[in-house]
């Protein structure tokens, strides 16, 4: 039996508060929607592709993005809506990349179906662009080894797990979730880091994601103690 190694740097758990803010921008057809998607801040793209996940943390899986919902239900272009629903967000590591894929999908559809540009919404059904304003703060929880890390994961809020698994990788642009980054860089737990990095968090409820993370760490603790 051996004791668990200590991390070079402790992991500090953060959490966040999201506040939606109207931009005053709106679209009544596909052309206007596309033009604004190209120019709005990244916080707007993030809000409209992650709002459902933030607000409905216990529902699963694959929350729809707002663009697809509006295009399908209001504009009536179900085929384009389906194409936007099908965008696999986990494949993109920055908001810029995700934005570009949304733009490409809409432009390709318009090229094939120019008639779609003739569809306008009724007054009051326009797409209103909203941005996500985030406030990040540190929690009381830190971890210096796998035992402490597992214990903290069972106590922190779902917002904290969301921040480290979603925001750090995509919105902040780190390209990898905070947990994997710490496990590899401070504990040399490369195998565990890769397992967590390979998870698709968009297919889990937040509580199920917590459970999956805890079980992966538990398995690694048992393996380490048996060596």
Could you write a compact summary of the structure shown?
The chain has 227 residues and is an alpha+beta fold. It has helices at residues 30-39, 42-55, 66-75, 78-85, 95-112, 146-153, 158-171, 178-187, 190-197, 206-226; strands at 11-27, 127-143.
Succession of helices and strands: EHHHHHEHHHHH
Gyration radius, rounded = 20 Å
The end-to-end distance, rounded to whole angstroms, is: 7 Å
Tally of individual helices: 10
**Helical content, roughly?**
40-55%
Main sheet overview? 2 strands, antiparallel
Query: Regions with pLDDT < 50 over 5+ consecutive residues?
Result: none
Strand content: 5-15%
Main-sheet strand order equals 1-2
Structural class: alpha+beta
Total individual domains: 2
What is the multimeric organization of the chains shown?
single chain
Describe the global form.
elongated
Mean pLDDT: 90
Overview of this protein structure:
The longest helix has 21 residues, at 206-226. The chain has 10 helices and 2 strands. The protein is elongated and about 70 Å long. The chain folds into 2 domains: 11-15 and 133-226, no CATH class; 19-130, no CATH class. α1 (30-39) runs antiparallel to α5. It has a two-stranded antiparallel ribbon. The chain is of the alpha+beta class and 227 residues long.
